[in-house]
Amino acid sequence: MSHEARLFTIYGRVQGVWFRDSTRREAQRLAIAGHAINLPDGNVEVLACGAPDALRELETWLQSGPPLASVSRVDSVVVEATPTTGFRIG
Q1: Looking at residue 86, what DSSP letter applies?
Q2: Annotated active-site residue in 6, 24, 25, 38
Q3: pLDDT tens digits for 43-89?
Q4: For 25, which of 35, 36, 61, 82 is 20 to 30 Å away at the CA?
Q5: Is 38 a catalytic residue?
Q6: Is there a catalytic annotation at residue 20?
Q7: Which of 6, 13, 20, 56 is catalytic?
């Protein structure tokens, strides 16, 4: 099975709305490893390592996020990352 890594930056009202924990749950459902962290500028960074189909599904989910979020934009870049296990939030 091929894996790739993507770094997503999610813009909008995405802090204080359970975005990171909801992303963790979605990533676990999709068997994606990585992290979701708050950035100082109010946005959220998500590093995701997994199967290409799962990453596309996660990216679609990130476009709206959890119910209280208001996502204005999601940027995505392919990165080199060593596959890890689990998904952490910080």
Answers
A1: S
A2: 38
A3: 999 999 999 999 999 999 999 999 999 999 999 999 997 767 889 99
A4: 82
A5: yes
A6: yes
A7: 20
